[in-house]
Amino acid sequence: MSALAVSRDTEWFLFDCGEGTQTQVARAGLSPTRLDAVFITHLHGDHLYGLPGMLSTMGLDQRSRDLVIVGPRGLKEYLDTLARLRTMFVSYGLDVRELDAADEVTTVHETADCVVKTRALDHRLFALGYRLEEKPRPGRFDLDAAMRLGVPEGPLFGKLQSGEAVVLDNGKTVTPDQVLGQPRRGKVVAYCLDTRPCAGATDLGNGVDLLIHEATYTEDLRAEAGQWGHSTAADAARTAREASARRLLITHFSSRFPDVTPLLDEAHRIFPDTVAAEDLVSIQV
Amino acid sequence: MSALAVSRDTEWFLFDCGEGTQTQVARAGLSPTRLDAVFITHLHGDHLYGLPGMLSTMGLDQRSRDLVIVGPRGLKEYLDTLARLRTMFVSYGLDVRELDAADEVTTVHETADCVVKTRALDHRLFALGYRLEEKPRPGRFDLDAAMRLGVPEGPLFGKLQSGEAVVLDNGKTVTPDQVLGQPRRGKVVAYCLDTRPCAGATDLGNGVDLLIHEATYTEDLRAEAGQWGHSTAADAARTAREASARRLLITHFSSRFPDVTPLLDEAHRIFPDTVAAEDLVSIQV
Questions:
Q1: Confidence check: pLDDT of B163 > 90
Q2: Which positions 36-75 of B are in contact with A (Cβ < 8 Å)?
Q3: Which of A38, A92, A118, B63 is most solvent-facing, going by the fewest CB within 10 Å?
Q4: A4-137+185-276 topology per CATH
Q5: Which residues of A touch B45 (CB under 8 A)?
Q6: Does the beta-carbon distance from A53 to B19 stay under 8 Å?
Q7: Interface test with B, best of A49, A54, A224, A254 (most B CBs within 10 A)
Q8: What confidence score (pLDDT) does residue A203 get?
Q9: Average pLDDT of chain A?
Q10: Within an 8 Å CB–CB cutoff, is residue A77 touching chain B?
C-alpha cells in the first residue's frame, strides 16, 4: 500500500494514503497536526483506503486547522459518502480540490515556502503525478561584509536577511545584496505512480533532486506492465535519465518480488543513483 | 480497530473489519478463500475501513465464490460508491444484506453447520450484535453397540452416523438411535460491540460459550460511556452474568488504557471468567 511523507521543518505533506498509513505515520514520529496537505494520485484502494481513518484520527485528536486534499475527480464523492453515512469523525474543514485533466504542469497548492504542481500520468485509471518545489531561499548572510559595512549585530541582521534595506546610525543605507550571497535554489521532489512511462512523468521529474517513480515489474514482464498501466524498473530509470533527475527512488513493487534485487539491478544499469523504497525508510534530500 | 475471526474446520466468519484487518488475517494464517461471510456491527470507520481492501485482495487472489456481507443499512451505498469510483477489484459476487431494525433476534445467515443471528444494540449510530450458533452435532458413535448389532465396519457406519437407518445382510434393520449417543449441542458465540449495556446484548449472549462484549471505559468514566454509547468493563461483566454466558472476552478499550488491568479487575469482581482481548490472541471455544 502506497504512502509517502515529505517532511520539512515546520510542516509535512502526504502523497497517497493506502490502508495502514496512519499507523506508519505514528511509527515515523510525524505529528498529524503538522500535516499541511494530502495529494492522492488515483482512486485505487491501495493509494486511498487509509485516508478516511487518518482523517478520523485527526478529528478525534481535535485538529482544528483546515486540511487541503488534492486528487482526481471522484475523491469528493468518496469522502462525502463516508461523511453522509457517518463513518468519519472530522471536526475541521476539508478543502478538497479535484482534477479530471492536467495536460500541463499545473500548480494545485502553495504554502509560504513550497509550491505543489500536478500533471496527468498514464495509468488505466486517471492518475496524477506531483512535483513539490521549495521556493528559493535567501542567499547566505555574509557576516564579514556586514561588519565591514558597520551594521551592528542585532535586529538589522534579520531585516537584511529577509530582504529589507536598513539605515545605519551614521545615515548610510545598506542593501541586502551587499550582505547576502546568491539566492539558493529550493529542493524539488517528484512523485510519479501509478503510471506507464510517459511525458507527464518526465515533465514532473525535470531536474528534480529526487524522483520517486513506480517500478512494478522487470523488463521480462513488459507485457503485464503495459496491460495494467505500470512501469518496469528500466522504464523508471529511463524516465529519471531523460528528466535529468539527480536521484531515483523506485517503489510499488509487484508481490512477485519479495527480493527487490532484480528491480534494483535493472534500474542501476540505466540510472546508477537509484535506491529501492522500504517501509519507513527515510531519505534526506 | 476492531475485527474478530471465528474459525471452524472448513470455514471462518469475520465480525467487523477495521483498517488493517487483511494484514492481521494474513498474520493469523487464515485463508481468505475459506472466508464464508462478513458481519459488520455498525458503520463507524474503526469497524469498517478494512473491508474494501480485504475485498480487493480477495479479488486479486482470484476468489470466485460469492461472499455474504451483513450489516446496517448504508453498507451497500458504501460498497457501491467504492465500486462505481473503480477503487475496488472484486471479481466475485457480493451478497450484501442490510438491516435497519432488528428488535428480535433474527437469523441473517446459514451454512451447513452454522446459523448466524442478529439483534440491534444501543450505540449512538445504529449497531447490530451477532450470535453464531453451531447446529447440534450427531451424538458419539458407539462402536461396541454397532459391533454387537452385527453392523460390519465400512460405509454402513457412515450412514448411521449421518442419521440413516441401514439394513444388514441378515435382513435386520439398525436405526441411528441404537448406535449414536445424545446429539451434542453446538458451540455458541456472541459479539456485542459497540453498545451501551442493553437487552439486545443480553439476548444475544443468552447461554453462550463465549460472549465478546465491548468494555471501552471503567466505571469512573460512566458519564463518557453513556454519552458516546459505550459500556464500562462492569457493564460487560453484568451482561455476561445476566445472560448466563460461560466466559467473557472484553475488547474495544479506550486508548486511555495502555494497560488493561483496571478494566480486567473491574470485570473480574463481577464475572470471574473474563479475559481481555489482545491483537492476534486466539481462544479455543
A1: no
A2: 43-46, 48-50, 52-53, 56, 74
A3: A92
A4: Metallo-beta-lactamase; Chain A (3.60.15)
A5: 52-53, 56, 82, 87-89
A6: yes
A7: A49
A8: 98
A9: 96
A10: yes
Percent of chain B with pLDDT over 90: 93
Express each pLDDT in B185-219 by its tens digit. 999 999 999 999 999 999 999 999 999 999 999 99
Angstrom distance (rounded) from CA B233 to CA B262? 9
Specify the pLDDT at position B250: 98
Q: Which residues of A touch B1 (CB under 8 A)?
A: 53
Task: Return the axis-axis angle of helices B75-84 and B51-60, rounded to nearest 10°.
Answer: 50
Q: Which three cell numbers stand for residue A145?
A: 561584509
Of A52, A74, A87, the CB nearest to B85: A74
> Torsion-angle region of residue B250: left (phi > 0), alpha (psi -120 to 50) or beta?
beta
Q: Which residues of B touch A82 (CB under 8 A)?
A: 45, 78
Write down the ipTM of this complex: 0.86
Average pLDDT over residues B101-128: 96
Dist CA B240 CA B266 (whole Å): 13
Burial class (CB in 10 A: 0-12, 13-18, 19+), A205: buried
Per-residue confidence band for A204, with pLDDT thresholds at 50, 70 and 90: very high
Amino acid B165 reads A
CB distance B77–A78 less than 8 Å?
no
Residues with Cβ within 8 Å of B153's Cβ and at least 6 positions away in sequence, in order, are none
DSSP state of B187: P
- Could you tell me the residue ranges of all domains in chain B? 4-137+185-276, 143-178
Across the interface, whether the CB atoms of B77 and A85 are under 8 A apart is answered yes
pLDDT at A126: 97
Distance CA A93, CA B215 (A): 32
Q: What residues of chain A lie within 8 A of the CB of B49, using their CB?
A: 19, 49, 52-53, 87
* Sequential DSSP letters for chain A: ---EEEE-SS-EEEE---TTHHHHHHHTT--GGGEEEEE-----GGGTTTHHHHHHHHHHTT--S-EEEEEETTHHHHHHHHHHTT-----S-EEEEEES--SS-EEEEE-SSEEEEEEE---SS--EEEEEEEPPBPPPB-HHHHHHTTPPSSHHHHHHHTT--EE-TTS-EE-HHHHB-PPBPPPEEEEE-S--S-HHHHHHTTT-SEEEEE--B-GGGHHHHHHHT--BHHHHHHHHHHTT-S-EEEE---TT-SS-HHHHHHHHHH-SSEEE--TT-----
> Across the interface, do A125 and B49 touch by the CB < 8 Å criterion?
no
| pLDDT bucket at B10, cuts 50 / 70 / 90 | confident
Tens of pLDDT, residues B250-282: 999 999 999 999 999 999 999 999 999 999 999
Q: What is the pLDDT of residues B53-76, one digit of tens each?
A: 999 999 999 999 999 999 999 999
Q: What is the mean pLDDT of residues A94-104?
A: 96
> Would the pLDDT of B115 be above 90?
yes
Give the model's pLDDT for residue B139. 87
